[in-house]
Amino acid sequence: MVVLMKLITKTLCLLHPFSFKYFLLVAIFLILIYKWSFTSTPNSSPPSPRKLPVIGNLHQLGLYPHRSLRALAQRHGSLMMLHFGSMPVLVVSSAEAASEVMKTHDITFSDRPKITFFKKLLYDFKDVASAPYGEYWRQVKSICVLHLLSSKKVRSFRAVREEEAKSMINNIMKQSKSTTSSVFNLSDIFLTVTNDVICRITVGTKYNDGREDRKMFKGLSVEFAEIMSHINIGDYVPWLSWFSRLNGLDAKQDDLAKRYDDFLETAVQEHMDGDHVKNEDEKDLVDVLLSLQKANVLAIPIDLVCIKAITLDVFTAGTDTISTALEWTMSELLRHPRVMKKLQNEVRGIVGNKTDLTEDDLVGMHYLKAVIKETLRLHPPLPLLLPRMSSQDVKISGYDIKANTQVIVNAWQIGRDPKSYNNPEEYEPERFLSNDIDYKGTDYELIPFGAGRRGCPGIQFAAAVKEIVLASLVHKFDWALPGGARGEDLDMTESPGGTVHKKYPLKVVAIPYSC
Ligand code: HEM
């Protein structure tokens, strides 16, 4: 600013009297903007870092917003008010503050922001995750919970999970015995197995059967998470919305929405054309949605767009998150051979001489569950959860929060809070053997799935997939890094994006284990 003022003064000396007046006005205008943007917020609002004119604090998000927001919260506190353009954004960075937002004032913070990405990709907010809080959301969420994600339903998909885990193991075994180099891209394997399970329960087929028109499907959920991480500047500074046309983001979003829609349209049409009568257990999500539509029993009738939106939600919310969680878990196990050994002993001890592991074996695997929890604590796949929106004015910890404030909860930072955990940066699954902290949304120091009304309905389903896949891998193989690299040298750099993956795919050597 000082440099700018000097430049203006120098220029003024060389100017005609008319231009001089003009420049004087510009200088006063700039000073006013400067003062306005750097004045401290009123006492009743949470502390705010300084912001820039027009863009507010957007420039402070950086490549890894969860890390940048932690750095800011360390200076300004666990309730902090930022501005994305003209939009006030409350950033929540402690378990206590998260409990106030997602428990005490849950209803007030149960809305979602109406961002362009959701509008374009999620059928104008017709899915569960982006639907505004209200009757429509209640209806579609309960359809999802009752017909796909209830305990009974999750148990009923057991055969699908066991078959897909077994098929994954057989493929690795075959390849590891047939070639001299048995280096596997586990990141890709995790995406395939998760995709296959999710596809089977939602559309009844794997989309991995070699058919040319289906090949494109596997990468869509990753592309979805990648594009979601880009900010449409017009959402926060409406007069700059042309910028997303200029930088190609608009076109990318339209293109992905079209490809997803083509895929979903075909999948739903194939269900409508099919003449095979299925019994209740054979029905996939699309079958259920079509029968609900036909029976006309819902308070708000659902149409084809709704059916596609709900199905899309399950693909995008389930696939990339589960495969990312698996990727981080195996990476941490490779970095910590002591933990890997202890887990293998537990799994191999319980499975005994049986050839195949089943879900019955998982019940007693307490260390496996602790390993999964510890990984979700350090690497929540959605470190900032999904954004919320306040629907009315409210007081939080003595601060006034206005209606239409966007809310970001930094679950990544909350999981690393030294007030909640000893040695929070260390990978120590044992910590969860000696306490009852769980990620189901009641313990606010561990909220990788969010909490409250808008919390994730897929927790049980995700746990079931992760447990069978991990247990099967450590049961059947010993694992090492290629070229004899040591575990501690494994690159753990994160990829930028909505779902935070490893930046580099996890490549490993599989050594078949025989007991
Ligand atoms: C490791 C796996 C998963 C993680 C880490 C995860 C995480 C999350 C998070 C953080 C939210 C937002 C919660 C909030 O606002 O408080 C969410 C919402 C949601 N998740 Fe998950 N999720 C996972 C798996 C799944 C699966 C497998 C499904 C479905 C099959 C699913 C379906 C949904 C849906 C529909 C919502 C929107 C809920 C709403 O807005 O009411 N998720 N998830």
From TrEMBL:
Q: Where does heme bind?
A: 456
Q: Does the keyword Transmembrane helix apply?
A: yes
Membrane-traversing stretches: 12-34
Task: Please name the GO terms that the record assigns under molecular function.
Answer: heme binding; iron ion binding; monooxygenase activity; oxidoreductase activity, acting on paired donors, with incorporation or reduction of molecular oxygen
Q: Which family does it belong to?
A: Belongs to the cytochrome P450 family.
Under the heading Pfam families, the entry gives:
p450
Q: Which cofactor does it need?
A: heme
List the keywords (alphabetical).
Heme, Iron, Membrane, Metal-binding, Monooxygenase, Oxidoreductase, Transmembrane, Transmembrane helix
Q: Matching CDD domains, A to Z?
A: CYP71-like
What is the top-level taxon of the source organism?
Answer: Eukaryota
Q: What is this protein called?
A: Cytochrome P450
Q: Does the keyword Signal apply?
A: no
